[in-house]
């Protein structure tokens, strides 16, 4: 059966809220050098360009090789990937509905590949995705359009229908733009759009399904209204 189209999702700030666990890993790395912990917001403002840049920007006051700091952060993070990380409301339900409706779905993230798989499997949504692309040695990162092409290849998409890049950060929007995909900006995430534009902005993952003509029970409209009301 031909697909309805393709959706590539970012992970952090799009499908999952991982702020607390990422900040915890950064602070575990810092504390291993005797440095003071940094606030959650400090770490969150530096998420979105891969763990190496996250570590570099979160530990500029530490006089130690960057590779060593990255290794310590990744070790701490691997020990608590799912300590506080959760799916955003509606993610599992929407992924299942879109899969049933014939959409090809994949994840494209600048998070380490093995950690990405562990999180998706632990949260019970790996089977709803046609492909997963995290960071591996020698692999391009978003916003490089080559990363998008690799992710598309891994999903096995038949190139039928529209293709979307869904994310909460300018790296997602730029990657989608440079690869020629439609772009959906997740306002509920913790990223920032920078100077990028988008084709659709959502306050709830339910709104993406509704825009694509896929209703998800009776909660679609209700959750969208709740999301809008929470900002007023």
Provide a concise account of the structure shown.
With 232 residues, the chain is of the alpha/beta class. The chain contains ten helices and eight strands.
Describe what you observe in this structure:
With 232 residues, this protein is α/β, with parallel strands linked by helices. The chain folds into 2 domains: 5-17 and 86-230, HAD superfamily/HAD-like (Rossmann fold, 3-Layer(aba) Sandwich), CATH 3.40.50; 19-78, no CATH class. The chain contains 10 helices and 8 strands. The protein has helices at residues 19-32, 40-44, 51-58, 66-78, 91-100, 113-122, 145-155, 170-179, 205-211, 219-230; strands spanning 5-9, 16-17, 86-87, 103-112, 131-135, 163-167, 182-186, 200-202. The chain has a 6-stranded parallel sheet with strand order 5-4-1-6-7-8, with helices on both faces. A two-stranded antiparallel ribbon has the order 2-3. Helix 6 (113-122) links the parallel strand 4 (103-112) and strand 5 (131-135). Helix 3 (51-58) crosses helix 4, helix 7 packs across helix 8 (170-179) and helix 9 (205-211) crosses helix 10. It is globular. The N and C termini lie far apart (43 Å).
């Amino acid at each position: 059966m031909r697909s309805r189209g393709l959706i590539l999702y970012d992970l952090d700030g799009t499908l999952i809220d991982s702020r607390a666990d990422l900040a915890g890993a950064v602070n575990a790395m810092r504390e291993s050098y005797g440095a003071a912990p940094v606030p959650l917001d400090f770490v969150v403002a530096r998420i979105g360009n891969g763990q190496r840049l996250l570590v570099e920007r979160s530990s500029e006051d530490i006089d130690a090789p960057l590779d060593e700091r990255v290794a310590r952060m990744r070790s701490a993070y691997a020990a608590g990937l799912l300590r506080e990380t959760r799916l955003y409301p509606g993610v599992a339900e929407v992924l299942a509905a879109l899969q049933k409706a014939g959409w090809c779905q994949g994840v494209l993230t600048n998070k380490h590949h093995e950690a990405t798989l562990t999180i998706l499997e632990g949260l019970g949504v790996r089977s709803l995705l046609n492909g997963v692309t995290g960071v591996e040695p020698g692999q391009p990162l978003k916003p490089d359009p080559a990363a998008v092409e690799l992710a598309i290849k891994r999903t096995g998409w038949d190139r039928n229908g529209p293709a979307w890049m869904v994310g909460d950060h300018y790296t997602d929007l730029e990657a989608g733009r440079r690869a020629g995909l439609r772009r959906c900006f997740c306002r509920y995430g913790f990223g920032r759009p920078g100077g990028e534009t988008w084709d659709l902005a959502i306050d709830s993952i339910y709104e993406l399904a509704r825009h694509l003509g896929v209703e998800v029970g009776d909660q679609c409209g209700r959750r969208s209204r709740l999301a809008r009301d929470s900002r007023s």
